[in-house]
Amino acid sequence: MSLIRRIVLSSLIAAGLAGLAAAQQPVVVMQSADASTLDPTMNRETSTFNAVINVFDALIHKEADGSYTPALATDWRAESDTVWTFDLREDVTFHDGTSFGPEDVVFTIQRILDEETESPIAGGFDFIESVEATGDHGVRITTTAPTPLAEHYLSELMIVPSDTFQEMGEDAFAEAPVGTGPFEVENWRRDVELRMRAFEHYWRGAPDIEELVFRPVPEATTRFASLSAGEADLINQVPPNLAESVASTRNASLEAVDGARVIYVGINTVSANPALQDPRVRRALNLAVDVGGIIEGIFGGRATPTTAMLTELDFGFNPELEPYGHDPEAARELLAEAGASDLPLTLEAPNGRYVNDVQVAQAVAEQLQQAGVDVTLDVREYGAYVGDLFSGAAPDLYLIGWGNAPQDADFVYYSLLYTDELLSYFSDETLDRALDRGRSTVDREARLEAYRTATERIHELAPVIELYKPQDLYGVSDRLDWTPRTDERIWLYAAELD
Questions:
Q1: Please, which residues have CB within 8 angstroms of residue 432's CB and are 6 or more apart in sequence?
Q2: What pLDDT was estimated at residue 123?
């Protein structure tokens, strides 16, 4: 064999071995935060949800385009305005080999709704009045009223195995869960990594990815460095100032999609601070914040300002409302009128959970200071921070984000502004009645009318400081074929290795 032929053959073998090694390397996903739990009945926050949707399945699957397709249910029907029936798939097993059946659906729903469980996501499913098995392969769900977003909520209902869950106990299951999804959990070291492997007996067929690792990396620059070095295959929440760097990386590309998440500063109107119960003060806080300046200066224009917490992409958006605008002098006058000049407030924010969250919080604090508000900024670790918010222990002001996957006003307003709901620190009977009307009918025009009332009320009472919806930017390695979704789901069964 000639020397040239030997060199060519050696090169081909080396390339083949390198390609094989690359294919066998785990796919590494770096998010800004770790999962809070692996029990899908106890959390829906995005970092957690992105982990559990790769381990569990729902009754129905939400596609990237917003349509719904069969998952654990092969078919479903609305028998009336309040009764849904589901035909369940018969060929499904959990990762431990036990068979999936209607008792698992019943158990999952009842666990979430059981008050003793104290599930933080119960509010999202309180439209369910009852659930029952209908034979060996069917379930019936009865709702308290017509529910226009029922399919969306049910696409987020990850089913857990009844017998296995009860045998393991809730604490053990939350650390090493068993699902029907495309990947099974191998090992989870909190705040270090969550390691999964392909479930070979997955009912859709085994995933293309053999090993999958989720790693929490709060710092965006660290995630980018790992992507550039070939140590990560998918990073989320790329800040705009790194967008061009990611796009020009030799072994990766920048992927962008319009985001559905609203970022805002919540106002604790039910706290011991009486000034925050005055809508004049809350409007003043809005007038003090330069949202346009934040969008241009911190995001390079890659965000959209909200009005009543919505944009024109959301069902229920009211185009007749004008943003508050930036008017610090008017803010000072309102504060003086309300007797709240030099108002002392605490603003808390997470570190690294949202793109440029600390920078945004600093900008908000500085702008409030300029309007005469005495702000103390406290930046906290996300897990403890969000735990306090969900348990009713919010500070005066808190920077937070809320994904609006169905792009519907109900999904934002009910959890964030309805009296005593999941992340609500506000109460108004007029708003509550409008939101009840909007979520209890499937009539589109009636819903729009309800949300017109709701948006006007929100704009008048200013229960939050309005901010923006950011564009979602991802860095994706060249060996991974994956397309981002507006709803922020990172579902790796839909990905392939090149």
A1: 418, 419
A2: 86
